[in-house]
Design goal:
The complex is a heterodimer of chains A (about 280) and B (about 170). In chain A, the strands form two sheets. Chain A has a six-stranded antiparallel β-barrel with strand order 1-2-5-4-3-12. A six-stranded antiparallel beta barrel of chain A has the order 6-7-8-11-10-9. Chain A has helices spanning about 1-5, 10-25, 35-65, 75-110, 275-280, and strands at about 115-125, 135, 150, 155-165, 170, 180-185, 190-195, 205-210, 220-225, 235-245, 255-260, 270-275. Helix content of chain A is about 35%, strand content about 25%. Chain A is globular. By secondary structure, chain A is an alpha+beta fold. Chain B has about 170 residues and is mainly α. Chain B is globular. In chain B, about 80% of the residues lie in helices and about 0% in strands. The longest helix of chain B is centred in the C-terminal third of the chain and has 44 residues, at about 125-170. Chain B contains six helices and no strands. The chains are: A alpha+beta (about 280), B mainly alpha (about 170). The interface between A and B is large, with 44 and 51 residues.
Chain lengths: ~280, ~170
């Protein structure tokens, strides 16, 4: 026992383990971001934004270089010049695509004037596949609060789960812990969708608790029904790809598979719904 | 410059994990770059430096893109401290020990993540995830650690040699 108290590294390690375990349990439930987390995140946010932009340029450059491998290998300089021109063209194309995406977001916000939006760029994603969340470059300073819905021009993306001064964490609807109260747009039947964790395959949602005998067919559009107070009514979630059960047997089994309308693999910009006209009035 | 080598590698690995590996991966499977760097550093420099490196990188990952503050910090710190126990027990040019540690640590880490997700209400098929994600990730992390170890070894070997000389000299 005396030897144990003489082993300082072991004592420090045990103390650190105990502190970290307490920290994990303290931060598991519903909570607000501490000033320390907010400050660290705010310092890292510009660095992450810069790193994301550089990363996109580097990836783009190599994509273009590999696309010109058929060029005459003897003409090295010409090939390089072609690669440079293609890089410039690629950058223009990226700007055009970004412009298109932002226009789509603008069109979406103009066609849904009941809401006020804050547009933000995704600057980091969680490590691994277990938790589908990402960090955006807008936070409390921009009017973002916890549980605000996040959308893009194609539909619902997720909700804000943590907010710092200049950044926020968003948990997407395809995260296996996420549940959203929804309805079938055509029949107005209420149900619930939940994310599914399957590595490598296309993002999917499972539909549960559909009323017995519901007339659900592949291609039906699923939208939010506004229940629960987090997501406004009528935001598109996805389309039904496979109906597995429409009766009351095995209520725990899913009713259908839903393919999200949002392409979560190529998500770059999102909009946070910061308030609605109803709330403002 | 050498004293900044570990922090520089940790920053690069955080960037790889949070940005690049989301674009560049093999059917969704990717190595854990931070874990690979922490373990390589630990095997070369020992438990204390490895544990501190793991704690710092883990806390940053927790705050910026983790789900629970402390989980990554705990996993990386313990991985660093435990693999650091091997420091000095093998020749520093052994490039098998560190990757094996990384492989094992990655396997344990992914299982802890799966367990914490299931505690938090997430639903998934463990058998399917074990084959399609956990095992391939562990192998990739081991291979990535081998690469990192080959890069770090020559830079760190002077420090290792100095310490061995010091010990021999008494």
């Amino acid at each position: 026992m005396n030897n144990f108290f003489k082993n300082k590294p072991l004592i420090i390690m045990l103390a650190a383990v105990i502190l970290l375990v307490i920290l994990i349990f303290a931060t598991t439930g519903d909570r607000t971001v501490s000033w320390m987390e907010s400050a660290v995140g705010s310092v890292a946010q510009p660095v992450q934004t810069f790193a994301t932009n550089v990363s996109n340029s580097v990836i783009g450059f190599f994509e273009r270089v590999f696309n010109v491998t058929d060029a005459d290998k003897e003409n090295e300089q010409l090939r390089l010049r072609v690669a440079q021109l293609e890089q410039a063209e690629y950058e223009l194309e990226q700007l055009r695509l970004e412009n298109e995406r932002l226009k789509e977001l603008l069109n979406y916000s103009q066609s849904n004037e009941n809401y006020n939006y804050v547009t933000a760029t995704i600057i980091a994603k969680g490590q691994g596949v277990w938790f589908d969340s990402f960090t955006i470059n807008a936070g409390r300073k921009h009017g973002i609060e916890k549980n605000m819905p996040v959308v893009n021009s194609f539909g619902l993306v997720g909700r804000v789960t943590d907010v710092g001064a200049t950044w926020a964490k968003v948990t997407s609807i395809i995260d296996s812990r996420s549940t959203v109260s929804v309805m079938v747009e055509r029949t107005r039947d209420g149900a619930m969708v939940q994310g599914v964790l399957e590595n490598g395959s296309k993002a999917a949602l499972e539909l549960y608790y559909l009323p017995s005998g519901s007339d659900l067919v592949p291609g039906d559009v699923i939208v939010t029904n506004g229940l629960g107070g987090v997501f406004p009514k009528g935001i598109t979630i996805g389309t039904v790809t496979e109906v597995t059960r429409t009766n009351d047997n095995n209520a725990d089994e899913r009713n259908a598979l839903v393919e999200p309308t949002v392409d979560f693999n190529h998500l770059e910009e999102v909009m946070v719904i910061v308030s609605s006209e109803e709330q403002s009035e | 410059m050498k004293r900044f080598l570990i922090p520089i590698f940790l920053v690069i690995s955080l960037y790889l994990d949070s940005i690049l590996f989301h674009h560049v991966n093999i059917f969704g499977t990717r190595p854990d770059a931070v874990l690979a760097v922490v373990i390589s550093c630990s095997v070369l420099t020992g438990s204390v430096k490895g544990g501190i490196a793991g704690l710092c990188a883990g806390l940053f990952a927790d705050i910026f893109f983790g789900e629970y503050v402390g989980l990554y910090a705990l996993i990386y710190m313990l991985s660093g401290m435990l693999s650091g126990l091997l420091e000095g027990k093998f020749y520093s040019d052994n490039i098998v020990i560190a990757p094996l540690c990384a492989l094992g640590a990655s396997f344990i880490k992914e299982n802890i993540m799966a367990f914490s997700l299931s505690l938090d209400g997430g639903r998934f098929n463990y058998g399917s995830m074990l084959i399609t994600y956990i095992l391939p990730c562990a192998v990739l992390t081991g291979l990535f650690c081998m690469l990192i170890h080959i890069i770090l070894k020559p830079s760190m070997s002077r420090q290792v040699r100095q310490r061995v000389d010091y010990r021999i000299g008494g």
